[in-house]
Amino acid sequence: MRLDRSQELYIKMARYVEELAKSQNLNMRNLLSIVYEDSVYKTAYETQKLRGEFSTFREVAKRDIETAISKPWATDGKDFSTRIWENKAQLINTLQTEMTRSFMIGEGAAPLINRIQKRFNVSFSNARRLVETETAYVQEKGMLDTYEALDVEQYQILAVLDMKTSDICRHLDKKVFDKKDAKPGITAPPFHCYCRSTTTPYIDGITDGTGDTRAARDPVTGKTVFVESDLSYEEWYNKYVKNTDTGALIGLKTSNGITIAKLSKHQQERADIRNLDLDGIRDALINPLHIGEVVVKENGNSQRFIGETTTVNINPDTGVVITSWPTGKSRLKKYKKGK
Ligand SMILES: [Zn+2]
């Protein structure tokens, strides 16, 4: 079958739109995943900071991200993927109509291109609106999931107040809702397209400024302890989520009295790529199942600490952590029996 020029052009266009939708879908998925994860961690940080107490926060599971971004949330029951495919189908449809009409009346290429351009622009602004709304939702979802995880009972609406603030958001600003009543679009942002409102945890005695809980009381001694109030988000993230705060190992005393001075370059690099089990290293050094003899080597002596999960080699003279790896099963068996 021979295709005439218009058919050929149409097929090319349709293929282009198809590719466009596919990459849109993929990009959107990536974007929403990042936004969700980011929102969870930032909310956890803000909440802990507000409470004046930082603690370990579990990493967001891939499965939770998937659930958060794939769940249809708007009243029409469509997810972002469906919207993109619908947008695509609509665009192809209009392109087809435009082209058929153009060839039937035999007009030149210029007006056709002009009109197609306009269609693409409409489609583009649809896509942009979609990105804005979906991102706002996923961000909010990340916040609410974290409130749930950290037992925050109430949250407060925070509108961006300027000339562009919508009436609805102007009215909702500073309103406090129970987390259990949170519903996007009604009691939680986004309240409308391009909504810039967000939420913040509402904690009695802190958010309203009636109490001073920034200095936490040690539950055991009853003494007021200093809180790491100036811990930045990055520091918090490395220490409490990724557990790559290698600084926490420095100064640590091993069970046989060696003070850890620093990590070898190799170990620091592994911390950077989050391939270092800091808890395991700490445990091996403080609480070893077995400590090996000092091995004398030309480039520095070495001593092995076999821990429950991690085995560590350190230089007993300099206190440098040379390397670490997961403790093998047979070793674990052998030394655990002896304990
Ligand atoms: Zn708004």
Query: Helical proportion?
Result: 40-55%
SS class: alpha+beta
Count of structural domains: 2
Question: What low-confidence regions span 5 or more consecutive residues with pLDDT below 50?
Answer: 211-218
Q: Whole-Å distance between the termini?
A: 81 Å
Q: Could you state the oligomeric state of the chains shown?
A: single chain
Instruction: Please compute the radius of gyration using only Cα atoms.
Output: 29 Å
Quick one: biggest sheet? 5 strands, mixed
Explain this structure.
The chain is an alpha+beta fold and 339 residues long. It has 2 domains: 5-149, no CATH class; 243-338, no CATH class. The chain has helices at residues 5-51, 62-70, 80-105, 109-149, 167-172, 233-241, 265-272, 278-286, 329-338; strands spanning 154-158, 176-178, 198-202, 216-217, 224-225, 262-263, 290-291, 303-306, 310-315, 320-326. Strand 9 (310-315) and strand 10 form a beta hairpin. Helix 1 packs across helix 6 (233-241). The termini are far apart. 24% of the residues are buried. The structure holds zinc ion. Zinc ion (ZN) binds at residues 166, 169, 191-192, 195-197.
Give me a quick take on this structure.
This protein is 49% helix and 11% strand. It is of the alpha+beta class.
